[in-house]
Amino acid sequence: MKKIVSWCIVLTIAFGLMFTPNSNYPVYAGGLNDSIFEDIVGHWAQEYIEKFYGRKWVVGYEDGLFRPDRYVTRAEFTAMVVHIFKGEIKPGDSVFSDVIENDWFYDVVNYANSEGLIKGYEDGTFRPRNNMSRQDAAVLVSNLFDVDFFTGAQEYKFTDEDTFPEYSYQSIKNLASHEIVKGYPDGTFRPSNLITRAEAVRMLDVVLKYIEIPSPEIPEAPPVTPSPDTTSTSTPTPTPTPGNTSNGNKGVSKSTPKATPVPEILDIDLKPVKVNIADTMTDPQTLQISGRAIVEIENGGNDPVKKTFEVTIFEDTNLSGGYDKNDNILGVKKVRDSVYGASINVSVEVKGTVLFRDNPLYAFVDSRDVVVETNEQNNQLISNAGCENKPSVGSFDPVLEWKWDTSEVFPNSINVLMTPVIMDMDGDTIPDVVFGSTESTGGNQVEVGILRAISGDSGKEIFSVTDSVYRINVAFSIAAADIDIDGKPEIIACDTTGQTLIAFENDGTFKWRSPQLQSINWGAPSIADIDNDGVPEIIIGNQVLNSDGTIRWTGTGGKGGKAFGSSGPLSFAVNIDMDDELEIICGNTVYKADGSILWQNNGLYDGHNAVANFDDDLYPEIVLVGNGYLWLLEHDGEVKWGPVTIPGGGRGGPPTVADFDNDGKVEIGVAAAARYTVFNDDGTVLWSSVTQDKSSNVTGSSVFDFEGDGSYEVVYRDELKLRIYSGMDGTILFEIPMSSCTWYEYPLVADVDSDGNAEIIVVANNNCGYGIQRGVYVFGDANDTWVNTCKVWNQHAYSITNINSDGTIPSKSINNWEIFNNFRCNQSIDALACVDLTMSYLRITPTDDSYTLTARIGNAGTLYAPKGVNVSFYSSPLTAEEQNSDETRELIATAIMENQINPGEFKDISVVLQRQLSGNHVIYAVVDDGSGHGMVREIDETNNTTKCEFSFDSGSYTPTPTSTPMPTPTDESVQIKDIDPAEAFDLIKNTLDEEIVILDVRTLQEFEEGHIENAINADVNSDLFNDMISSLDKNKVYLVYCASGTRSIKAANMMKEKGFHEIYNLNGGITRWKNDGFQVTE
To answer: CA-to-CA distance for 190 and 1022, rounded, in angstroms?
Structure first.
């Protein structure tokens, strides 16, 4: 059986190392692709493929697929056998008219012919691009190795063996006698069918019964397909072969060969740029969708597409953000277009059942991955991409949404002096405002008070820490983050000594108290993972504490403060030198993560910092404000410019950095004693506005684009007023009395009530007698038109990327200046993102003595919908006189959305009907008012209502939703296309061989008398026809013909019923084909 051993190795390599023109390279298991293949799950050959994969006999492609049903061409199969088992190739002259010198397979085909391994056709062609049939594979193996072991074996008979051509008969019978090849369940072998990778693996598995396979040397993985900017041809790389044992047959030896030349690689990049589902309609009760999706597709490459590709429309049912096997396919369309020079629009018919009304749909271009692209990551797009809800021009109208200025707990402790933090402390998805309050009306560095937390949507109190042992210094701003990795945030404050930090759990429970620190009055801590070990550290001035409150190190340089002697540190951590560790920015000093000094500029004052990139180089710059002066420093401490005197006198507060005037460059905002000033990136003044801060003159500001129009606004509060300026020129857009004796506090901008809109959070106190306002104030827009933003602000030195949305600290922080390039600012998350609440699938079910109303609320937008949205149920009697007008509606039940709904999600909400109804009624379910005046500003207010007719006498309604609709994949509606011979010829010519099947449905006798080249035969009137076509790939292109067109229509309709996607019927059949001058072959 030595000859079979050789054959096993041949097929293992031939089918496992297939170099396929215009496709991804396969790679060896354990090499570039180390995972099992998702496309073999449930496949009939899964067991065998996994077995061979485990033994490293077969490989997959670098995209993670095995492609078990992929066919191989005659040239590919021949080339692989020759290159692996032959030494130096000595091709003879070409004897085939279709194998020319420029073809990549020229040498190997002619060499195989000269060795007697292959033969061509009678017309002098080899047809190298035709797919390899089952019979040709058997013949090639027999010719190559002289396999002949029929004697003594049990003959196997096929029901169609009388149809075997003479040239392949004996080869098929030889292999079948040892069960190395098998037929189909109906007893046929179907010699004209094409051979696949899966069939090759199965054949090998049978061979293993007869022989003991030696452990072959595993060849190296072939080179990875490059992604060129322009069309190129990759360089072939020799592929080692397993072992060096000669089989002694026809000179076949296993020496190191040359690799198969790789065909041209095209520069193609298909991507959807718009998915329009306006022409689809979803029944709000049955959730059945129908209509068409229009997908605009462009090619970002420099070459035309030469293959037929598919566009699939699907619903992302598991919210994975892309297609997977669990998703709901709603439509598929084959596209035959070069997509070259201009975008194309593809109309895809969709039908099926969706999860909720108006759920966005995805388009997946080249979903079967037949086109090799330079970028395979941009082939999917959701229909609501780019959804925008633009505020009306001139709609900037701040109003007070709520305030906290009274309390039943320590009712006199209402003055708030610090910058608060914004974070969800109790896990209800609504951010909370955490701060300290005092009853003192003084202006000292240490003011004793209590820690409080209130809900961001109403000001409702969550906790107050009243135990006198755990009082805090409320002039010291706090910080919050999950420092002990328990999934809940902790709060870091300063105790009443002004020299010790005190930590609290998320519910206000005492956690720890630090040792005595250097003077930290009036300062604020920051939190970062400075050593990237997954556990955060706490930074205060020139000291770093571990997460348990112990001191990690104390620096010997600047402290990042000194606004009042040695007080007021506001240090923080960033990766200033772009290495692998964070550094601590402390005024005129930068510390390494271990506490050693990276650099210190003793020629500058200590002071307050911000960090941003001002010159578009690799490194950020450091802003320094100290003792009334402003500097801009390079990352290494060298002075870029400054000192610049800050207008208005006084010390100067912590700087804010943002693109105030939307000119593409960042500016610096600094508050002083009598002015708020914005400086250009070169230190000149952009604008300056009169203010009053005689108290501390170290307050700060926030900058935000509230309307999403590119024009930023500046939010600042001094001793007397809260003001909002135009970032462009300092024009006052809004002002309102808001008093404070001033410490380090400044207004914040965050989505504090989780409604999808930004709010302003500002504190007030009547200390020093500057006004009467006290407590916490939250301002929003009167029309709810402000854009969305983050729902967290965790520390004074906030920079967006320093904290995750769940309160955890990044183990390796992203540099803010590489994304947002701002400091002490918040940013919109897709500024004009939209919410679209939809109502559907209303059900009415009887309970013991009433009914339960259930409706489905979905979010078809791109922004979360907040919890707390109202849901209303109405009833309208259905009588001859009252045809269900709005005037007859009566409110019968209400509910509240208890959780926020993220984009693509839905929630079923139920309420028990508390009243008795009789007769026929129309029941309505409405989410968020449905008139445009609800809690949420939506992109579409027309889909907020659904209804059904219900008889409370009989307990029935129409239509009847019997159960929760589940998505079921559906196929595109198929139209059989009639084409004439010329069109059929073009179809064959312009479709790659592996993508088209020419199906001759006449009798075998008619077929042998003459047929279209490459056609396969399946008699439509045979009892076996259904079985025959069941084995075919339904996703290929099929050209069906008979003698005149009658039988082919019958066959095409049968194929349509079985789910074939693209069927062409040849008008007039082969008779007209010949009459029109097109050739046939026997």
So the answer is: 14
